Amino acid sequence: MASNPVFAVTPRIGFGQVSTANTNYDGVTGTYVDIITGASTGTRIAEIVIQATATTTAGMVRLFITDGTTTRMFDEVSVAAATVSASVKGARLSTTYNNLILPNQNWRIRASTHNAVAINVFALGADL
Prior knowledge:
Elements: E1 10-18, E2 33-37, E3 43-52, E4 59-66, E5 71-79, E6 92-102, E7 108-113, E8 119-127
Antiparallel strand pairs: 1-8, 2-7, 3-6, 3-8, 4-5, 4-7
């Protein structure tokens, strides 16, 4: 156990846009976008925000964690169908995490979308 607690030091925002349909659940096959890579000292992710940039069909955004060798699905976020217009905004979802840590620079979060819909994915956190 550390003698001194470790607090977040440097704020971090990672982001990417997923738009190519990928129905795979393995985090390897198909198209994925890297959202954020951990720092050498570790990175704590507090929140992931998903914001559609256009009309959406009901589907999923899948989040994966990889250590550079093995990739596993970490979370799925449901995206509702929405026809974007002057009076209807694009789908936006936010998921908070109390315990999501990328231990070092080999670890990263990747994302994919089940349907061919343009969606921005943001990871909000801080390096340790």
